[in-house]
Design a protein that fits this description.
Helix content: over 70%
Order of helices and strands: HH
Shape: elongated
Distance between the termini: 19 Å
Amino acid sequence: MSVQAHLGELAAKHKALEAELEDCMSHPASSDAEIAELKRKKLRIKDEMSKIAVQMKH
């Protein structure tokens, strides 16, 4: 898989998690732990995307 394809895949996952997080936050039955886990997943993907972007610059 090319680096660009991998970045695209990560961006799609990040966007899907954002939608899931917004949905989760709009339902009062969602637990704080569930919301926190979604936020951690989003952050891990964002960090990975940032690392790849830095590597591409070098």
